[in-house]
Structure prediction request, 179 residues.
Amino acid sequence: MDNFFDLIARRESCRNYDPQKRVETEKLIKCIEAARIAPSACNSQPWSFVVVNSPEVSPKVAKCVQGMGMNRFTDACPSFIVVIEEKANMTAKLGGAFKDQQFAQIDIGIATAHICLAAVEQGLSACIMGWLEEKKLKELLNIPKSKRIRLVLSVGYAANESLREKKRKKLDEIMRIVD
Ligand SMILES: Cc1cc2nc3c(=O)[nH]c(=O)nc-3n(C[C@H](O)[C@H](O)[C@H](O)COP(=O)(O)O)c2cc1C
Prediction:
């Protein structure tokens, strides 16, 4: 992979993992390093991550994202990253309140994108999941009740290297140039 555009083209939500291939913990740590250097409003860094790379615990995390029959593909996934919203710093909080923006959630989205791209760069595949059972996950991973879990990422080696066609709105539907 030579450049950024190849990297973003190779990233897709992986729902077909090779259950035999465990993920090297160092690669997951590199994903978190990529999140760590992500930008955030007022450099608030309102996030923390629980990395689960355990043959015993990973299947339990999978069950926490399968409510109502969703995300069944996670049964084959060896690793997960749970994304927790942490308290923003005072400047970001005040700025967000003043401007009526949810900066912390925006920040978390950016950090999560960094994780996905770092995964692809290392030959891994990921899927962001917002469909999660927060209470069950908190109990499983000892996350305080007071915190919010915003996302869970499944991370593993894809069972199949082929990529899907990207179905997206056309450029002229999403862009207006003022020049
Ligand atoms: C905030 C967020 C929540 C998502 N939740 C889920 C989910 O619970 N399950 C799932 O299979 N995909 C989920 N996705 C993945 C999207 O369906 C996917 O990104 C979109 O369809 C575009 O496809 P691509 O990622 O393969 O390019 C989520 C993506 C985002 C950004």
Summary: The radius of gyration is 17 Å. The domain at 4-174 is CATH 3.40.109.10 (NADH Oxidase).
